[in-house]
Amino acid sequence: MSRKLALAEGETARTACARAVLRTAVDEKTGELLPPRVLAERVGWVAGLVSGMAGALLAEHWNTSDVDLLASGEDAGGRKLPSNAWMALRRLGWTTAAPAGVTVNDRIVRMAQEQAGRTLRAAKWRADLTAGVLATWPADPAKRTGEEWDAVRVAVPDGQFLPSTVITSRTRQASAFHRQHGRLPVDVFELESAPRTARMLLLSACDRQQATLARGDEPGRALLRLQLPTRPDPHSYRDWTWVACPVTLPPTIPANALLHLHLPTLRIHQGQVRADLAYTHAVVKAQRTGHSVALGVDWGLNTLLSAGAARLHDNGRITALGSGGMLRAAGVLAKQHRLRRLSELLHAKTDQHQRLMTGNEQHPLAARHQLLTDEIRHISTRRSNLNHSLAWSAARWAVDQAIAAGASVIYVEDLRSMEARGMGRTINTRLSQQVRGQILDRIRHLAAEVAIAVVTVPARNTSRHCPHCLVPLRHRKAPDRPTTPGWKWAICRSCGYQGDRDAGAWKRIAARGLTHQAKTIVDRTTSTMVIRTVVDTLEATAVITPTTKKTSRDRSKTGPTRPRSTRPAPRRRRAPSPTGPCGPAGKRPEGHAHTGRMRLPRAAHRHQGVTTISTPFPKLSAPLEQGRPHPGRHRPRGAARGAGFHLHAHATPPRWAQPIPDTTSDMGSLG
Asked: Which residue in 180, 339, 490, 568 has its CB near the most CB atoms, within 10 A?
């Protein structure tokens, strides 16, 4: 169904993926309607065959010489290998076969070779990275010196721009192998066993003799036809029949991409057949330079994201457009932290059970060990789903802020090398649980649809220097506690600026990106836009000019100040509303009737402001008992009791130029 995409001037082709579900199918040979359970069973038979053949192929060629040969791009005769993995493996003579007594066509073997070839090609980067780390092994693996860091960056591919956390994680992995075996591993293939192969069908490696995809008769519909077996061990080609599966296309697929759908990837998830539909459509190409309005995005601690827009004027002056906004997900991260602690506890129990069982499958603890293993898998799935929802929500919020401000670029600080250390156990854990990589990938995905460039900038001194004069800031606990050392509130002794630490950071990021936009390059390996270094001459001009509002009104004090009432307005009306035209009775006063039903707890206090207010802890007359929390510490009640995602993620809504009904930027609608 895929055709060549015609592009206009200034457009580029964009390939994305959408998820669909195959709910029913029809066996074309018998005309039988296949329910979802039978369809998932038949697809699972094919996925099992493909996974077994791909796993055998991986185990056979999981070594340094074969991976290097495949990654070289040339065969033994010096000819260039094809880009398709299954064709490259056949050129090298790496074949596989179905189990004895099972009959499959050549397209099933292609899918197994494609899956194994992609995995082997991806292992090349890990092999080179591990080889560079082992070749420059430090004297103290826990802490490298400056010379040792320079040596390892020279040894690994593209080590100059590689995050230090990647090298550190490989060092820890090799150190664990050394503690267990008393020596360092030879290569990554001794350090890691062959990976497990997923149970999925890569239909992109097939032709029309195995699968076809055509546009349906109705808008938003497509028809997938593929051959599936009628039994788990087909003995002949008569055991394979054509099955027609109608597909309802997700609404995220644009109308101009219906003619450019690609064969999907099928996989089984919770008894359903899911199809990952790839499609190609034309979008306006994002520009690297020439930006006048930019959105700066800062990663925070309590606030997951802080963002605001800045404008670059013709005279080189940079001003902030508004006060920005914040996305706070403290309750969601608290729930993530609770699941992490539970997972660690279960892992400790399963490790103790393994030590007691000593490999005996008939041990009385075997059943409980299997139960805990299943529970660990379930908790891991919950954590993955929570991270997935949080990443999409944060990305949608950031892109909405850029669209509302009219920005053509989003500048995000590059924190790939940031390690959570030295800030206390709570803050370190909170930083480690944040899904920055996933959020950044989803921001790029959503921004590409609206021609907004996403550029990463160096994170040096974005929170340390004043956005107005570049003088080092003094950080305090809160604005009403200016003498208490802290990290949240920033005060400048030179120009008098003070504000939230994260608010000053996004201003610095936006100003740095606008002044360094001529230094934006496209990374060759990831095809992402990035600013590598900070130029001092350009950095000196990356300041936000404060805007002062002038008024002609004379505000001089000529008389006594008028007293103002400090009594807040009541939440409940004291009298019912007047009688309406539809009935004799008036409306019920504001409030909730006491029906005895327990309500979900509120996420936080009533006023969701973005300014920092200190929360002093009351002094205790007696020491606390062990394990009992401080009574003055804020505890997200919904996260502790499982109230839900939407009650504990608060975001500043985008300030649209015109009222546009849109709920995607509201974190509450994504619960």
From this structure: 490
